[in-house]
TrEMBL record:
<comment type="similarity">
    <text>Belongs to the ABC transporter superfamily.</text>
</comment>
<keyword id="KW-0547">Nucleotide-binding</keyword>
<dbReference type="InterPro" id="IPR017871">
    <property type="entry name" value="ABC_transporter-like_CS"/>
</dbReference>
<keyword id="KW-0813">Transport</keyword>
<dbReference type="InterPro" id="IPR027417">
    <property type="entry name" value="P-loop_NTPase"/>
</dbReference>
<dbReference type="Pfam" id="PF00005">
    <property type="entry name" value="ABC_tran"/>
</dbReference>
<dbReference type="InterPro" id="IPR003593">
    <property type="entry name" value="AAA+_ATPase"/>
</dbReference>
<dbReference type="InterPro" id="IPR003439">
    <property type="entry name" value="ABC_transporter-like_ATP-bd"/>
</dbReference>
<keyword id="KW-0067">ATP-binding</keyword>
<feature type="domain" description="ABC transporter">
    <location>
        <begin position="12"/>
        <end position="235"/>
    </location>
</feature>
<protein>
    <recommendedName>
        <fullName>ABC transporter domain-containing protein</fullName>
    </recommendedName>
</protein>
Length: 249
């Protein structure tokens, strides 16, 4: 966690953020406050609304209600903040016949970004060689996705399940990469189902279920009474499901 967590504005703030599909609120009145400088973990069951929330923050999905800000600029004007946001969401897309370096060069050219830092970016995510993207392993694809997210030197980095499907060594490497991004002074918001990873890496937690916020705050606050994140997480959802069953019976 960076010193910027103390007394600075939020990197992300939302109030009443809502998205409905087919009349159902999949994100339902979400109030988020992610302090600048933290690694924030967004966790919740399948279908809880994590990706939809991230897509709204990135201007990819228009909220049906609510407002907020990203890096101090209004959520309703993504063009004002997206130059300072890097993201990897739902499987990065790259040209299959080009190497990682060439892919990043193309992205830099398209985005009007300086390509000078590309070799250093590839080194920091641990990508070497000039294999074409189509021959990359899943772990290599995720690494390249993160390098691409860092191309524009963003203040905020949003990663949707970056360790999904990786082997244990890949998961450990991803942990190091996320920490190093934060050590640079960047705020990171990462969604994940890997609770032990989240517990190790994230100093801020957001737990959502059915589109609603169940917890938000420092990881240390949730864990203060003892137990690990998995226990706390499962007990939140056991309580929710028991209440739901109680209502329907
Ligand atoms: N474009 C869409 N049209 C209709 N329904 C959608 C759309 N996008 C998402 N949904 C629905 O919204 C709900 C939340 O989806 P979302 O992908 O945000 O969940 P998630 O928490 O990211 O889940 P997972 O952990 O499985 O990735 C799901 O029920 C999903 O089917």
């Amino acid at each position: 966690m960076r010193a910027t967590m103390r007394g600075m504005t939020n990197a992300i703030r939302t109030r009443g953020l809502t998205k409905r599909y087919g009349g159902r609120a999949v994100v339902d009145g979400l109030d988020l406050d992610v302090p600048a400088g933290v690694v924030a973990g967004l966790i919740g069951p399948n279908g809880a609304g994590k990706t939809t929330t991230l897509r709204m923050l990135l201007g990819l999905v228009r909220p049906d209600a609510g407002d907020g800000s990203v890096n101090g600029a209004p959520l309703g004007r993504p063009a004002a903040y997206l130059p300072w946001v890097g993201a990897m969401i739902e499987g990065p897309a790259f040209y299959p016949g080009l190497s990682g370096a060439r892919n990043l060069a193309v992205q830099a050219a398209l985005g009007g970004l300086d390509p000078a830092g590309i070799p250093a970016l590839l080194a920091r995510v641990g990508l070497t060689g000039d294999k074409p993207f189509q021959r990359y392993s899943l772990g290599m694809k995720q690494r390249l996705g993160i390098a691409a997210a860092l191309l524009g030197d963003p203040a905020l980095v949003i990663l949707d399940e970056p360790a999904n499907g990786l082997d244990p060594a890949g998961i450990r490497d991803m942990r190091g990469i996320v920490r190093s991004i934060n050590d640079d002074g960047r705020t990171v918001l990462v969604s994940s189902h890997l609770l032990s990873e989240v517990q190790q890496v994230c100093d801020w937690l957001i737990v959502i279920g059915d589109g609603r916020r169940l917890f938000q705050g420092p990881t240390s606050e949730l864990l203060a009474g003892g137990g690990d994140l998995e226990e706390h997480y499962l007990s939140m959802f056991t309580a929710t499901f028991t209440a739901t069953e109680g209502r329907s019976s």
